[in-house]
Design brief:
Length: 572
């Protein structure tokens, strides 16, 4: 293992001409013979076979003996033009750095772009960090040698850091637990499964534990629906160049950005935009609520003006179904960002690993024989039928348009078996119980379907039972308020986005845990710590009760999210 300072790593990256943002000031790395002192922060980098990864260690003033090793979530590893990055939140300076790409100037009005940074985090928020430090936990985290779907780099980075810690970087260690958010949760679970004698337990927050095939097949469902009925120029998959991916994302965001001024509009293909998008989102398993639209609240103007007068005056939403349709227009932007930029990056990784040429297919999702009409349940047809049938083309007409291409390799996207094998060989958890596990998920997440948690939980419980082990596994879901959170300013024609988002304190959005004090996360850590010490069924039950005390967490263990949609999963 080679230890270097963070400044050297940043200097190497900066020398490529890619990054222009200044690197934060960092203390020298602790080495194997000098422990990070209490109350201090130690930062540096470690080099493995896949490259150099940054790390950070933050010590409490009084150490309780437990180290938490944190893995951060997905960061786009390719420069994203500012025009696309800013509305998607991909310009957060704690996770992204500014870069200049001259080629972007003509198409996007500026050469400024943002790219995922190799910065290490020790917790998902400053509130969580400070809370855990106050409890005596030593916090550590890694930044990965490469961004994107960097599971291989993330696993290596975790193992390098844990080796560094065992070598003396933290003294007095009694227990090490891994945890992570989103993609970081998948990485943390993988590390725990692979190192059961080193990792005492794992906490995975809102993690895509079923892997990239499930995640990207859902995005393909949305994008193929768009290609068929809204934006026929979309490439959807097998991107041969970054320009193609950026063009797709720009197309989607342009349509979404212009839609509020054209409520009820049809696409150039003659299909109702809101209804077609809603149908694709339902088939993909996207949530029926967004950060602004709760799927319940109707504009108060309809009560005072009457339906016809309010609609003609441009007030919305008019019904719960219309609220859900608007929510899905909002959610699809986030889903498209992963489904396009994330897919491009993963396909490029596939090309590199497999030695594929730019013209070879790198597609790992197969929708060739998907019958889309079967993806919409009878319950969904019943609940949202009125809204789906309110456009220029009804639900049967839209379904017929999608299913007409079934089996057509020119119109659909058959997977390359080589690409599928490469993606399946990437590091991922297998759902084998080895040590205590806590799973925390937002119930309405546009990026990671909550059933990822339930399916992984089910697999862990099955393997624990088969092995005759005491199953020390807990799952929690944060829930939105039952009476809705969409807010309207007096006389407002559409919801007040800021006020609605402020009232949406939990349960909606990617990893959108309680915004008041993040107690759902900190109590999940406490649950995990208690589970590692539990030796009886009664002790396990008592430990699980801690997590149910988190803000907005479901009050019992009987909640089951909607089952995962799995269209396009190839059988090899």
């Amino acid at each position: 293992m080679k230890t270097t300072t963070i400044r050297r790593l940043v200097a190497v990256i900066a020398s490529t001409g890619l990054l222009i943002a200044a690197a934060p000031s960092m203390a020298p790395a602790a080495n194997a013979t000098e422990a990070c002192a209490l109350g201090t922060t130690c930062e540096g980098s470690l080099t493995g076979k896949l490259g150099a990864t940054t790390f950070k260690i933050q010590m409490p003033t009084k150490f309780n003996g437990t180290v938490l090793v944190y893995s951060h979530g997905y960061r786009v590893g390719t420069p994203v033009p500012a025009a696309l990055a800013v509305p998607l939140g991909l310009n957060d300076p704690t996770r992204y750095v500014a870069t200049k790409v001259p080629a972007f100037a003509a198409a996007f009005g500026t050469d400024v772009a943002y790219v995922g940074a190799p910065f290490a985090d020790v917790a998902p928020s400053a509130t969580v960090r400070d809370n855990l430090l106050a409890q005596g936990y030593a916090l550590s985290g890694v930044g990965y040698a490469k961004q994107g779907w960097a599971t291989a780099e993330g696993v290596e980075a975790n193992e390098l850091l844990m080796g560094h810690i065992r070598g003396g970087a933290i003294s007095g260690v009694k227990k090490t637990m891994t945890w992570g958010t989103s993609l970081g949760g998948l990485i943390a679970a993988t590390v725990a499964e692979r190192n059961p004698k080193i990792v005492a337990g794992v906490l995975a927050d809102c993690a895509p534990l079923e892997g990239p095939e499930q995640a990207f097949s859902g995005a393909m469902t949305v994008l193929y629906t768009w290609k068929t009925m809204i934006a026929p120029t979309l490439r959807v998959a097998n991107y041969e160049s970054y320009t193609q991916a950026l063009t797709d994302l720009s197309t989607v965001l342009t349509v979404l950005g212009g839609y509020p001024t054209k409520t009820g509009a049809n696409s150039d293909l003659g299909y109702p935009i809101a209804q077609a998008n809603m149908m694709g989102a339902l088939m993909a398993g996207l949530p029926t609520k967004s950060t602004v639209y709760d799927g319940l609240t109707v504009n108060p103007a309809f009560a005072s003006l009457g339906t016809l007068a309010a609609i003609s005056a441009g007030y919305s939403p008019a019904s719960a179904g219309a609220s859900t349709a608007a929510a899905m227009l909002q959610n699809v932007g986030a889903a498209a960002a992963l489904g396009i930029l994330g897919r491009y990056e993963l396909e490029q990784r596939v090309r590199t690993i497999g030695g594929l040429a730019a013209t070879d297919s790198a597609n790992f999702s197969n929708n060739l024989n998907v019958q889309y009409s079967k993806l919409l349940s009878s319950e969904q047809r019943g609940e949202f039928g009125d809204t789906l049938n309110a456009g220029a083309v009804n639900i049967n007409g839209m379904m017929a348009a999608l299913d007409a291409s079934k089996g057509n390799a020119t119109l659909r996207f058959p997977a390359n078996p080589t690409a599928v094998k490469i993606v399946r060989a990437l590091p991922a958890p297998k759902g084998v119980y080895t040590n205590p596990v806590v799973l925390l998920t937002t119930s309405y997440d546009p990026i990671v379907a909550p059933a990822n948690t339930f399916d992984y939980y089910t697999a862990l419980m099955a393997t624990a039972k088969k092995a005759g082990s005491l199953a020390k596994v807990a799952q929690y879901y944060t829930m939105p308020v039952e009476d809705g959170y969409t807010k309207f300013a007096a006389g407002g024609k559409s919801p007040d986005a800021a006020a609605s988002a402020a009232a949406n304190v939990s349960g909606v959005g990617h990893c959108a845990f309680s915004l008041d004090n993040w107690s759902a996360v900190t109590k999940s850590v406490a649950t995990l710590n208690a589970l590692t010490n539990a030796t009886t069924v009664a002790a396990v039950k008592k430990a699980k009760a801690i997590g149910y005390g988190g803000a907005a967490v479901n009050g019992d263990g009987f909640y089951v999210p909607e089952a995962l949609k799995r269209p396009g999963i190839t059988k090899l």
